[in-house]
Automatic annotation (TrEMBL):
InterPro entries: PhoU_dom, SpoVT-AbrB_sf. This is PhoU domain-containing protein. It comes from the Archaea. Residues 128-201 form the PhoU domain. It comes from Thermoproteus uzoniensis (strain 768-20).
Amino acid sequence: METRRIFRIRESYAVFLPKAWCEKNSVGERSEVNVMWEEDVVVVKPAKPRSFTARVSSPNIDVVVKLLMAALVSGYDEVRLEVKGLDLGLRHKIMSVARGLYMLPMEEGPDYIVFRVEDVKFDREKLISRMVSTLAFMIDHLITAPKVDPSLLESVDDEVDRYRHMIERLCHKYPTGLCASHVQLARYVERAADHIVELARLEPPRELVEALRGAVAEFVKTSSVDDVRSVFAFIETTDKIRFLLRQLARDEITMLHADRVIDYLTNAAEVYIDMITRRSPVVEI
């Protein structure tokens, strides 16, 4: 890190960019850069698209999916995928996965595909809010549905996963001061959703689900207000909720998944404390 002085040019302010950074990123006079800011952080990035190439030595769909996912969340704009033994069946599978990752084919050859990643600049906090409301929908389904449908919850959980991927991508492409907290939140909510899916497969007692539903509802309320007292109040209730869940769980595996939901919600609540503290230099409880 370096300390540099700001100087004034007419009605604007300027600071010199490090020469080594400019050379590394091929930025010179008249080059365009993206400037992002959030609270007290300003980020400057080259405006040119970023490209990624993955060369896979065998037709392994699992490897391909993981590499495409990594390219997406790492913020690349163009992805060239080269696969030895790329037959028609594997190509169709790759295309299906790519559509779900907002990747559009630009060019194809016998053993390669080039994708362009379609970017939609969602607000990260709105995406997290969607994840939280989706979590509430999932737990409501366990209570209100005449017959619980684990496959429906799996598809909803896939949507939660996509929200998390979008948040990670946005934080790589447009990094700001709160990105670390947003990624943590997204991962905790996603993992809570995973355990709700596992609970659905176990057909847990209705009373246990009602207790979890109450905890999720309190978390939803807490996440929607920028109030540190509300967050601490939620955290203080979690021990009572755990005690109640232990009384209601029929077996250890059911208790494990219910307990993990509470764990991840508590972790997420602690991240909200960090965010509130960052936004405000004075906190009163």
